[in-house]
Amino acid sequence: MSHGDHQLDGLHNVKHVVLVLSGKGGVGKSTVTTQLALSLVEAGKKVGILDIDLCGPSIPTIFGVQNKDIHQCDEGWVPVFLNQEQTLSLMSIGFLLNNQDDPIVWRGPKKTAMVKQFLTDVVWGDLDYLLIDTPPGTSDEHISIVEHLRVYKPEGCVIVTTPQDMSTADVRKELNFCKRAKLKVIGVVENMSGYCCPCCGEVTNIFSSGGGENMAIEFNVPFITRLPIDPSLTVGPDYIQMEDSVNGQQTIDKETQSTPTSSPKTFAECLAASVSF
Amino acid sequence: MGKTVEGEIPEDAPEHCPGPESEQAGKASSCDGCPNQKICADSTPKGPDPDIEVVQENMENIKHKILVLSGKGGVGKSTFTSQMSFALAMDDNVQVGVVDADICGPSIPKVMGLEGETVHQSGSGWSPVYADDNIACMSVGFLLPNPDDAVIWRGPKKNGMIKQFLKDVDWGDLDYLVVDTPPGTSDEHLSIVQYLSGCGITGAVIVTTPQEVALADVRKEIAFCRKVGVPIIGVVENMSGFVCPGCKTETAIFPATTGGASVMAKKMDCTFLGRLSLDPRVGKCCDEGKPFVESHPDTIVAKQYMEIVEKVKDYCAKSQG
Fold first, then answer.
1. Those residues with Cβ within 8 angstroms of residue B296's Cβ, 6 or more apart along the chain or in another chain
2. How far B193 CA lies from chain A's nearest CA (Å)?
3. 3-state DSSP call for residue B81?
4. pLDDT tens across B238-271, in order?
């Protein structure tokens, strides 16, 4: 770090920083981030989610809080709290837009400046975990976040992929990025692995199966778990209601009941266990 | 507060804000104390690039330039690009070129069955790699010593690569040049639009999946096209419904809670080009680099593809006249 380490005061009271990465888009980074956060909150932890996908922020949509605004206090930006206990807070560029459909047409330097501002200016307060959701790729946002976080010694990253070659081909690049950036890989999650027909129960591997696990073995990094395709995890605003997330327990139970074919609860527990330091 | 969409003066900007696009952005005295000062000061305005003319010359004999865009990742941009290119090239008299503008996650070498191929230098520039006699492809994947190597580049380096793809590749005479893009509305997208500004973009095909999380990003991409003046050919809904091979029941894997792409297209005043069902064989063909539309012509998805491609062809024919 060249200058101004002291500027990153916003993260001073954050115990663990975990990144969620993937070389590929649309594999479920934001969904995994959400599941992990809910599970940690349920376990009594204080969690913050920072969404650094500036051009395609999904975290506000997934939590159904697109219309929330960020308020400014003397110390900086106050994140959006999702429950009364204030144990789950979010920050995303989605909260800074006048209109949800406005595109963020920014080149690298401006994105880099925004990422840095998110790290310096957000008043997270005391957090057990800060989860950072990222865009696909190995470019400006990724280089910047890793550089800026270096002084904070992040715990590492959870890598998300889907099983097919087309996805793992890009994720292998992300694993090499982690190697180069000396970022520890906490583990690999294989998402969208098989789909169980709700009608007849037959499992079809729409995007193949096993690709994430094989990749983890090949790269000698831990494999966390496999998660089947679960349409209830993709429905966006309806998926987590504000009143439900007042109590993390309820939210997660509700999901489990609505999806008898898969087990997001076990999945989330698996994830949470992988980041218990 | 940071309401900082490029080109607009934020409502809560300080008095006498010079505007984020101004030469004075972040530097004027009125910028002192503004929370966006750092962001504004970092963006350097650029004049027109002399290479735009060079690109224009190199693209002289290319009839139609089609962008395949989506705000969202993993919705099937590369799959659509490959299958549309294979479909267009089924007519032996049609010459097709494919540019992979996704520098950090290039998928074109895999989906076109060209993994392990490399680019050759010739007197007239880089020779593209041919997937078939009439399909020329260019991707950063052809330039990597090892396919797993990460391309850890910031914006300017990515832009330089894209410029070379348009300016230094010996494309020859083409009927269609299809540009596959990464998700987002950033460097790659701005550069493509900027470098092709001299020769004109026929239009963009927007690919999405039915669920709101994807549509939310795709609406931003449509707004981007309008902002930079790229015509929209239409919207394609991919992964729309899955038919169980066991009981033949169709289920929505990515439920369209907000009406899906057709409703979104209508609201945004765009043409809806059609749906593509989720068929595991498409993904398998892409992993193996085979042309699904040619090898499984009797499937529902292949027919859906051909219908959409016909509409794209029609659009191109009309825009030419």
1. B281, B285, B302
2. 12
3. helix
4. 999 999 988 989 999 999 999 999 999 999 999 9
Q: Which secondary structure element, helix H or strand E, spans residue B243, and what is its range?
A: strand B242-243
| Closest of B253, B292, B277, B80 to residue A194, by C-alpha | B253
What's this model's pTM, rounded to 2 decimal places? Answer: 0.89
Q: Do A117 and B39 touch (CB under 8 A)?
A: yes
Write out chain A residues lying below 8 Å of B151, CB-based.
Answer: 138, 173
Band the pLDDT of A276: cuts 50, 70, 90: confident
Structure tokens at A48: 């913050």
Give the confidence band of B136 by pLDDT, cuts at 50, 70, 90.
Answer: very high
Residue A165, token pair as written in the block: 């070659």
Element (H, E) at A144: helix A140-149
Report how far residue B96's alpha carbon sits from residue B293's, in angstroms, rounded to the nearest whole number. Answer: 16
First to last CA, chain A: 26
B38 Rama sector, left if φ>0, alpha if ψ -120 to 50, beta otherwise: alpha
Whole-number Å distance between alpha carbons of B179 and B96: 11
CA distance A182 to A185: 9
For residue range B151-193, what is the model confidence (pLDDT) as tens digits?
Answer: 999 999 999 999 999 999 999 999 999 999 999 999 999 999 9
* Contact at CB, B72 and A56, closer than 8 angstroms: yes
Q: Which of B 153-192 lie inside 8 A of A, CB atoms?
A: 153-156, 158, 182-187, 189-190
| Residue with token string 């690109």 | B55
Kindly report the nearest CA distance between residue B124 and chain A, in angstroms: 31
B43 touching chain A per CB within 8 A: yes
In B49-104, which ranges are E strands?
A: 62-69, 96-100
Q: Which of residues 123 through 182 in chain A touch B, CB cutoff 8 A?
A: 135-140, 142-143, 162, 164-167, 169-170, 172-177, 180
Q: Among A186, A182, A188, A193, which Cα is nearest to A215's?
A: A188
Burial letters for B143-170: b for 16+ Cβ neighbours within 10 Å, e otherwise?
ebeeebbbbbbbbeebbebbbbbbbebb
Q: Which chain A residue has its CA at the smallest distance from B208's CA?
A: A26
Mean pLDDT (chain B, rounded):
92
Q: What is the ipTM of this complex?
A: 0.89
Query: Quick check: B81 contacting A, CB < 8 Å?
Result: no
End-to-end CA distance of chain B: 48
Is B292 touching A (CB cutoff 8 A)?
A: no
pLDDT tens profile A209-264? 999 999 999 999 999 999 899 887 754 443 344 334 333 333 333 333 333 334 56
Question: Which residue of B46, B100, B103, B154 to mutate against A (max A Cβ within 10 Å)?
Answer: B154
Residues of B in contact with A174 (CB under 8 A): 150
A contacts of B79 (beta carbons < 8 Å): 166
Q: Does A244 touch chain B (CB under 8 A)?
A: no
- Nearest residue, CB atoms, B74 vs list A26, A121, A237: A26
Radius of gyration of chain B (CA): 21
Q: How far apart are CA A261 and CA A229, in angstroms?
A: 9
Residue contacts between A and B (CB atoms, under 8 Å): 257
Amino acid type, B162: I
